[in-house]
Every structure is written in C-alpha cells, then in structure tokens.
Amino acid sequence: MQPALTENTRAAETTEMAKPEAKPEAKPAGKRRAWRKVLLSSAVFLVVLLLLPMKASAATVNVDVNGQGVNTLEIIEMMTILALLPTILIMTSCFTRIIIVLSFLRNALGLQSTPPNQVLVGISLFLSLFIMSPVVAKINTEAYQPYKESKITQQQFMQKASEPLKEFMLKNTKTQDLSLFRSLGKIKDDVAPKDLSITVVIPAFMTSELKRAFIIGFLLYIPFLVIDMIVSSTLMSMGMVMLPPNMVSMPFKLLLFILVDGWDLLFKTLATSFNL
The pTM is what? Predict the structure, then answer.
C-alpha cells in the first residue's frame, strides 16, 4: 500500500505544481490582446479625428502670401524650396571649393581635428558671403525688393533671382564641363550658355569647382610632402626608426605655414580665384 500511496502523492504534487504554471502564461496573453485592442481602437479614433476636420474645413481655409491667395500646390512647392534652400545655396556658390581646400590644408598639415569641422564650415560660409556679396546685392535689388513690394509675382521672383546666380556659375564654369553636360542632355551647340537651363549649369559648375579644389589641394600638399620626406630620410639615416616622422615634421610644417603667413595667402588666393 505504501508504494501506491507514494505514487498518488507524487501525482498530486505534480498536478498541483502544473496548475500555477499554466495560469501565469494565460494572463499575459489575455492582457496583451486587450492592450492591442485598446491601442488599435485609439489609433483609429485619432485618425478619424484628424481626417474629419480637414475635410470639413478644407473649403474655408484661405492662405495669403504677399497679399495674394495661394493654393495648396504652391504652398507645397514653397515648403520644398525652403527645405532644399541650404543645399541649393551650397551647390550654387563658392562654398564647395573653399571647404574642400580647407580640408586638404588640414590633412596636409597632419592635424586630425584642428581646426574642428565647425570652424572650417564657419570660415567657408562667411568667406563665401564675402566673395558673393555683389551677387547677393544684385538679387536683393532686382528680385527680393520688388517681390517684397508686391511688384512681381512669385514666378518672376524665382526667375530674376536665378539669373545672377546663373551668371556667376557660368563665369566660373569651364567650357569643357559645360560641353559635357550639353552632350549628356542632348542640347544643341547653337544654344547660348545664358539660355541653358539651370539644371544643366549647376552640375557643370559643381564639376568645375571640384576640379579646381583638387588642383589647389594638390599644390598645397607639395611643400608639406617635401618636409615629410626630408624628416623621414633624416630619421632613417640617424637610425631612429621607432620615432614617428609625423611627430617630428608637424612643428616644421606649422612653422613654415606661419612664416609664409599661410592664412592670409590662402584666403587671398581663394577670394581672387573666382570670376565675378
């Protein structure tokens, strides 16, 4: 009788142990389903609340820009232009050449993060504003002020504002690069450069800017490369193989850059390299 009792008690214990384990698994599943239903219903409710007022008030909304009514498509176009405005200004100005040349200079000096990126971007931005001040003044007098006084429409403003920028880009674009994008766009040769679309002028201008920036960067590297070669050969002849050449050559690079008044010379070269 004792073995039978022990088997019964063991079976009872196992059933009692199994019962509490099944309950905690069922409760979280039920709670999750309830939470999902609540979240789904609340999301549907919010969507309905957001959509119903828009449909009811769409006919009564009236947006005035510069004293004139503007429809929804024009508002979307204006917001898109404002979102792309920093990129457009960078791609159509002298900012690209300046920031690339400054980056080449920092790498040629062997400096990792001095000056930091924020300083390089700030210098490039304000130097670009200084160089392009005649273009900005022309856009202000010919496009912005008449548009502000409601003398021209938005389309006329965009057209008149793009003309000084296009003129600046054409003056600083190589004929080879302009011909390349002419052929890619299948544009006839008898079309004057000033009559080209701005979508053709911008990539040609950017290609020319990248070429000029890399040429200037190569010329900047040459004197500092000579210093590196002299220092490394001197260390090899002295048997100091374990000493890093960059550690020794960096003070001489900085000394050379300071003695020739490098910053003034660089900024003067950049400012005079643009055709205005």
Answer: 0.69
